[in-house]
């Protein structure tokens, strides 16, 4: 989380738009919320489901159809 907060706090025009996705084993709802509140764009729980990861990455970088809302994706 510290890394995300540091990136978002940078004095750079792209600091707010750099895609950051959490990939972690911490999959409780409060863990997901903490990642999003830190400034991450999305959260993917381990073990990684590649199809889900591809949908989330596509949404975050603005390509393809939007995936199911990250907070509602099967964890």
The overall number of domains is 1
Quaternary status: single chain
Mass-distribution shape: flat
Q: Helical proportion? A: 25-40%
Order of helices and strands: HEHEH
| Helical/strand content category | alpha+beta
pLDDT below 50 for ≥5 consecutive residues: which ranges?
A: 70-75
Mean pLDDT: 85
**Number of β-strand runs:** 2
In the sheet with the most strands, the strands line up as 1-2
How much of the sequence lies in strands comes to 5-15%
- Terminal CA distance reads 20 Å
What Rg, in angstroms, do the CA atoms define?
12 Å
Key terms:
single chain, 75 residues, alpha+beta, 39% helix, disordered C terminus, two-component regulatory system, Sig_transdc_resp-reg_receiver, Response regulatory domain-containing protein
Question: What would a concise description of this structure say?
Answer:
This protein has 75 residues and is an alpha+beta fold. The protein has helices at 2-9, 29-38, 50-60, and strands spanning 21-24, 42-45.
Overview of this structure, please?
Residues 1-61 form the Response regulatory domain. There is one protein chain. The chain has 75 residues and is α+β, with helices and mostly antiparallel strands. 39% of the residues lie in helices and 11% in strands. The chain has helices at 2-9, 29-38, 50-60; strands at residues 21-24, 42-45. Strand 1 (21-24), helix 2 (29-38) and strand 2 (42-45) form a beta-alpha-beta unit. The longest helix is centred in the C-terminal third of the chain and has 11 residues, at 50-60. The model is unreliable at 70-75 (pLDDT under 50).
